[in-house]
Amino acid sequence: MQPVDASNPPAQPLPLDARAAWTTNAVAIPIAQVPELSSQEFRGACVDLCTQGARLSALLAIPSENAKPLQVLAVLSHDARRCLAILRVELAEGEGYPSLSVALPQAQAFERELFESHGIRPLGHPWLKPLRRHADLEASPENVQAHTFFQVEGASIHEVAVGPVHAGIIEPGHFRFQCHGEEVLNLEIQLGYQHRGAEPLLLRSAPARRVVVAESIAGDTVIGHASAYAIAMEGLGGAAPPVYAQAIRAIALELERLSNHVGDLGALCNDVAYLPGASWFGRLRGEFLNLLMELSGNRFGRSLIQPGGVRFGLTNEQRARFLSRLVAARRDLQGTAQQMFGAASVASRFEHTGVVSKDVAESLGLVGVVARASGCDRDVRRDHPVGIHHFVQIPVCLQESGDVMARAQVRWEEVEKSLDFVVAQIESLPAGSGGSHDVRPKPCMLAVGMVEGWRGEIAHVAVTGKDGQLVAYKIVDPSFHNWFGLGLALRGQEISDFPLCNKSFNLSYAGHDL
Amino acid sequence: MLHLLIQRLRQGKHTSSFPAGGAGLPERFRGRPGIEAAKCSGGCRDCAEACPTGAIATSPVRIDLGACLFCMACQDACPEGALRYTADPRLAARNKADLIVAEGEDPKLVAALDAGMKRLFGRSLKLRQVSAGGCNGCEAELVALGNVVFDLSRFGIEFVASPRHADGLVVTGPVTQNMELALRETYAAVPSPKIVIAVGACAISGGPFAGSSVCKNGVPADIPVDLYVPGCPPHPVTLLDGLLRLLGRIQGDESRRAR
Q: How far apart are CA A460 and CA B118, in angstroms?
């Protein structure tokens, strides 16, 4: 655990670009403060800021009260400066704007989403294919072409189609491989099968329903998404939860990370037929789910996080029990990891498989474990802290090689750091209450709630109208940034390495499809 | 190799003693909800109005486990404390009517398949899973059934890679428009006689996504369901209890112990 170093405060401002409104995670700003740019200025400002170190965290449409019916908002994260830039452009019905994707490949999926959901055309976008809404688009013949898969032509080229129903207990998605022999020349990933309409449902529901929808965006990231939702709502209401509730949230977030990282390490072992690792990590994953259940009554932490605070705390007996169970779990985890990382059969499959270079990771805007395994130094807990993370930092774990081994190692290092953090937090848990659950959003505000979920950056953007009701709600799961990275990781690999590469990313289908 | 064996010995055995022993569930675990009508003044609808999925009907209070997310909304809302979750993990039922919890009624636990089906599947049941909009919560608990703790295969139940190899289908998720065709084709590809198991609030009623314009509120009515397993997601013990009762391998009050 590193205390914040007071002698070395975060680098402070060069003057902030006046084309954007600036804020930080969890802090709402009046929507009127966001300058209205022309479409050329908007594109120019986004590109300039990203050249100076920002990344695109969200791109969304919001209804406008002005003459033009739609506005597009961009949320750019400037990690080094620990702040967020909000940019805005107004568009007439059917009016396009110059695509960001040509200069910023990280925008490609966001712009496809805007076109598909709102008819906002990014002019010059290289690949305006539907992301999720197959059914209504299939009805229109002009879009048939947009449905064709990228194809490689030539003698002895063959195509492999997998999904949406896969051979295991996995969410649905379609994978189309262009192969020459065993070698994969291109992998195209078509998702959307899981599209449940989470955003509109969350927008138009009563508060009690919103929480359960947020918890169900990705069922393996209940704490992450419920926290991002709570942070956005608390930002809009101008009310932070008590320190005790923030500590419980941080503990739960790390328990979620532990269960998933440990489960992933087991699944990686399984995919290279290292069965002791698969069994032991598989069992140990359950230990962390069981701790979450002891805390919240549910193995995934449902019903724990509420806007305004948390519903459950830890009694002194529970704290003692947690600490002794964590000691036992750490001992078995370390024993298993030592065997796994020491096994030559594991190393020979993990090393040099599914490489994503730092340049590719940067240009695609990858986040989380996948980005850190390629050397991109980003972590919301450090760069955009909320709650307890203002005071206690968890070291960021980086690797350089960008292969399956790097992604496994980042997970293992994060397991150790999360264990340290959870133990320290439980030992020093402050006295206090879970907080009041009465959070009332203020009118005409915008707030961003960001959380470093176990996969990476989760961003929720909420905007209120004149009566304080939500008028726009955008959910960005880390998978939305990272799926394209998996496609590129497969280039030049053998097709038989796909399950291993896929597991090393372990992205959410539901979180992408919403 | 020696180190591996030492590690194996050190880690010990962790397989659950369920159903013979207790389920090992903690105090806060939310199982079957209990209604104490004596405490309910009957004058308000606070519980019903607080429920995010409309799972509660009033006068008298009844809870539809098929829509219940086992959240805390009703328990928090009831001014008299008449609604309390119990730790009873036995939630599964053979039909939707049996999912209704009312005061003073014994749980309508899963009845075993008829003799013919039991003869076919009782000692070997191969299942194919289809996620049709599932958030990966129910899927994760189905995967957990295969780990060394729950060890589903010790009961002769296994998940297989192809519907052609399966005796039945396990469906999760609210059934999105975009998965309806794939679900129907997978169902058709399972040879008869076959069973269908709907797992989780989404597959039974749409769950948190009930009423969404791009979902079907769970398994379509024309696909006959043999077993409903409520929960969001159901605990692996709830899944095991439902599956083993369906096969006639647990009867009566066995498996009641939560701890």
A: 49
Query: Which residue intervals of A428-506 are DSSP H helices?
Result: 478-489, 498-505
Give me the DSSP letters along A173-217: -EEEEEEETTEEEEEEEE--TT---HHHHHHHS-HHHHHHHHHTS
10 Å CB burial of residue B214 (0-12, 13-18, 19+) is buried
Between CA A448 and CA A230 the distance in angstroms is 10
- Among A195, A289, A290, the residue with its CB nearest the CB of B178 is A195
Cβ within 8 Å, pair A216-B208: yes
Give the DSSP H or E segment for A468. none
Is residue A365 pLDDT above 90, yes or no?
Answer: yes
Nearest CA in chain B to A291: B26
As to burial, measured by CB atoms within 10 angstroms (0-12 exposed, 13-18 middle, 19+ buried), residue A198 is buried
- Range 168-197 of A in CB contact (< 8 A) with B: 168-172, 192-197
Distances in Å between the alpha carbon of A167 and those of A81, A493, B128? 45, 21, 9
Q: pTM for the full model?
A: 0.94
The bridge status of strand A305-306 relative to strand A470-476 is unpaired
Closest CA to A507 of A430, A470, A453, A464: A453
Q: Which residues on neighbouring strands pair with residue A494, listed in sequence order?
A: A183
- Count of C-beta atoms within a 10 Å radius of residue A11: 9
CA distances from A100 to A59, A62, A122, A223 (A): 11, 18, 8, 32
CB contact under 8 A, B8 and A276: yes
* C-beta of residue A187 within 8 angstroms of C-beta of residue A487: yes
On the question of pLDDT at A1 being above 50, the answer is no
> Is B70 close to A213, i.e. CB distance below 8 A?
no
- Chain A residues within 8 A of B208 when measuring between CB atoms: 201, 209, 212-213, 215-216
Q: Tell me if A335 and B10 make a contact (CB, 8 A cut-off).
A: yes
| Lookup: tokens for A53 | 């170190």
A207 touches chain B (CB under 8 A): no
Closest by CA position to A420, among listed A397, A398, A401: A397
pLDDT digits (tens, 9 = 90+) for A458-479: 999 999 999 999 999 999 999 9
**Are A197 and B129 in contact (CB < 8 Å)?**
no
The answer, for A431 touching chain B at a CB cutoff of 8 Å, is no
Query: Given A201, A297, A336, which is nearest B209 (Cβ)?
Result: A201
Q: What are phi and psi of B137, to 5 degrees?
A: -80, -60
Q: Do A208 and B144 touch (CB under 8 A)?
A: no
Give the nearest chain B residue to A260 (CA atoms).
B140
Residue A302, Ramachandran bin (φ over 0: left; ψ between -120 and 50: alpha; else beta): beta
Inter-chain CB proximity B137 and A295 less than 8 Å = no
ipTM over the 0.90 cut-off: yes
Q: What is the predicted pLDDT for the residue at A431?
A: 84
Contacting residues for A111 by C-beta, under 8 A, at least 6 apart: A59, A99, A100, A101, A122, A125, A128
A221, amino acid identity: T
Q: What are phi and psi of A22, to 5 degrees?
A: -115, 140
- Name the residue facing B214 among A197, A205, A212 (closest C-beta): A197
Question: Contacts of residue A216 in chain B, CB cutoff 8 Å?
Answer: 135, 137, 202, 207-209, 232
